[in-house]
Prior knowledge:
The chain is of the alpha/beta class. The chain contains nine helices and six strands; from the N terminus they run βαβαβαβααβαβααα.
Amino acid sequence: MIRRRASAPRVAPPRPVVPGTIGLLGGSFDPVHLGHLAVAEEAREALGLERILFVPAGQPPHKPGRPIRAPEHRIAMVELAIVDNPAFELSRLEVERTGPSYTVDTVAALLDVAGEAERPAVTVIISAELFGEFMTWHEPERLLRLAQLAVVPREGYPALGRSFVAEHFPGLEERVTFLDGPHLGISATDIRARAAAGRSIRYLVPPAVAAYIGDHALYTDPLWRKELTEWRTPRP
């Protein structure tokens, strides 16, 4: 029996860089991993973004009560992860701001800092998982009017399309772009669990990040294990 070799997927070349464009990738980054980096690079090339800002959350509004490593650790891991990509930058906007880390406030702050004459075109990069919850975000319509959205696939979550945008935000369909990739199943939750169990996290995070996690026992120290157990235990 002769098997036909599957044809190679067609991959479009990168778009020319558009001056003044910024991609914003937010998250707890607890820890930052190769999936985050691949998503950022895909959005940068596919959309021609000049730079990508990694924005660690101060107080993630959708994860109340969940134990999270201190901002200085998450910032340090992001700095180690992005050091070799000149298009990647760290932003401390959310960790230096009090209160919940709402994306719409972060985008508004970026635009205000730039001033009217030099306001950048901002694209917020989110996963299909988060886009499915977009209606629960703080001021989602205002966010769509301030910035573009780039939605990347997430394994196990449906690929909501333009019809979803048209239903909930009529007239703003052009504000959302759906990217074809990357298709990676890396999860920060799984990485934390592996580290807590003493398993290897090699090839899931950059080597420098893996070394930092080990050096600081971020997910194996007794205090973190206690916090995680209490957070997972149902309350009466």
